[in-house]
């Protein structure tokens, strides 16, 4: 898709490095924190992120990503997928505690089109790229017949929160963060829906 703001296209495996960077940016360091714990001997956290971005399946896969480019440079990305219509069973014995509040919020957004990642490099912010990517997500939601859209954001990420509200998202629920050593100024995860 081409317009005045940016060109958007489906991501490819060659976008893995940028996707890893942008996903960590959107996740405020949480992805890198998790990738460090997943690294195999001789592998860095960034290697894990790039490997996961190149996967053919899984929530974090290039197949679920859209890349925005401006002036021939990657400006941002979007990772989306549908949340099923049945609640996920959250077993506290098998689910790491830091994921429980996120899964609880996803269970409140059943049958929605989930914006898992929206990230724009700092040098491209405040230029409409994030808004354009959210429009792509809305188009995807309609194409997939989803009942709405959803996104989860840290309550400390005021810039992203304002963007989502401007684009029609409204607060539905929140859950306290469980950090387990991850450093973040936020206290709660906030579910926004549209």
Task: Provide the fold topology.
Elements: E1 7-10, H1 16-26, H2 30-38, H3 45-53, E2 65-70, E3 73-82, H4 100-106, E4 113-120, H5 129-143, E5 149-154, H6 158-166, E6 170-176, E7 188-193
Parallel strand pairs: 4-5
Antiparallel strand pairs: 1-2, 2-3, 3-4, 5-7, 6-7
Helix pairs in contact: 1-3, 2-3
**Poorly predicted residue ranges:** none
Number of strands: 7
Based on CA inertia axes, which overall geometry fits? globular
| Rounded mean pLDDT score | 93
Please explain how this structure is put together.
- This protein is of the alpha+beta class and 194 residues long.
- It is 31% helix and 24% strand.
- It has 6 helices and 7 strands.
- It has helices spanning 16-26, 30-38, 45-53, 100-106, 129-143, 158-166, and strands at residues 7-10, 65-70, 73-82, 113-120, 149-154, 170-176, 188-193.
- A 7-stranded mixed β-sheet has the order 1-2-3-4-5-7-6, sandwiched between helices.
- A hairpin with a 2-residue loop joins strand 2 and strand 3 (73-82).
- The longest helix is centred in the C-terminal third of the chain and has 15 residues, at 129-143.
- The mean pLDDT is 93.
